[in-house]
Amino acid sequence: MNPPLIERPDRLSRVRRTILGSITALLWILYAYLWVPLLTFLAWLLGIHTAYQRLYLEDNAIDPFIMASLPVIAMVCGVLLIGWAEYNRIRFAHADSRRRRRRGDVGESAVDDKLGADHALGETLRSHRSVSVALDDQASPVAVHVLQS
Predict the structure, then answer these.
(1) pLDDT tens across 124-136, in order?
(2) Owning domain of residue 123
(3) DSSP letters of 9-68?
(4) Residue 82, Cβ neighbours under 10 Å: how many?
(5) In a domain, 23, yes or no
(6) Cα 56 to Cα 62: distance, rounded to the nearest angstrom
(7) What is the pLDDT of residues 74-106, one digit of tens each?
(8) 70 within domain boundaries
(9) Is residue 5 part of a domain?
(10) How many domains in the chain?
(11) Cα-Cα-Cα-Cα dihedral sign, residues 45, 48, 49, 55
């Protein structure tokens, strides 16, 4: 029995993952495209083709009022949307500055104390990429097993 093609996908480079993802997307698009004739036939059977012909192709005049009013409605919607956005921008322009101030840095010992871990354990957690953490009954870290540096 052959082994799987990709045993560790996290070890693939970003370029290779992008290429493989692009190929997969293209093949899914091709697969979906192959279903188009069947979907067209089903739509024709259900009468969508006939409804389209009756509504849009046979002696139906275009209503001039609709053609004149649609651009006006679109402009009014655009003006209302932009006006509302500008109103909110002006109203809340100074409120965000208080909320978005940079917070002070927290020391490593404060983080260790909040986790309930001793400082050697905290240093191990910070210095390795992949670790397995053992927790006690109060969900405090008690031991760390390094998986990957």
Answers:
(1) 888 888 888 888 8
(2) 109-148
(3) GGGS-HHHHHHHHHHHHHHHHHHHHHTHHHHHHHHHHTTHHHHHIIIIISS-PPPHHHHH
(4) 10
(5) yes
(6) 9
(7) 999 999 999 999 999 888 877 666 666 777 888
(8) no
(9) no
(10) 2
(11) positive
